[in-house]
Task: structure prediction
Amino acid sequence: MKQKERKVWDLVFPDFPERESEQENIHRAFEGKIPDFFADQLTNRELEDFLAHYDECRECRDELSIQYLIHTGLARLETGEVFNLQKELAAYVALERGRLFRRERNVKLTALYELFTLLAFAGAVAACYVLGIV
Result:
């Protein structure tokens, strides 16, 4: 909205809440995916986007640390167990990166396997026609 239009808008609707910026929407989406991240329920694409934003955004890294403390740390604090929150969270994120890599590799290998299966089937059908079996 242009500056002049914004001033008119503010005069007409002084208490109207500001629209969220795109960055705030990204932060909100990140926060919404944290439970799915801990439950390993993000798709490959969602996990890739989640980890990319995690790498770029200090605020969201802090939010993930807080949620990790709530998700994992509180139960351990009650038992009196000592742990390093940041170190364990970093290890968990690294584990998820490894899972993402393996899942993406498995998708590619599965596609390659299906291609080879189709080629083998097509070759078998062609051989049957050449030999006059069909």
User: Anything to note?
Assistant: The first helix runs from residue 3 to 12. The radius of gyration is 26 Å.
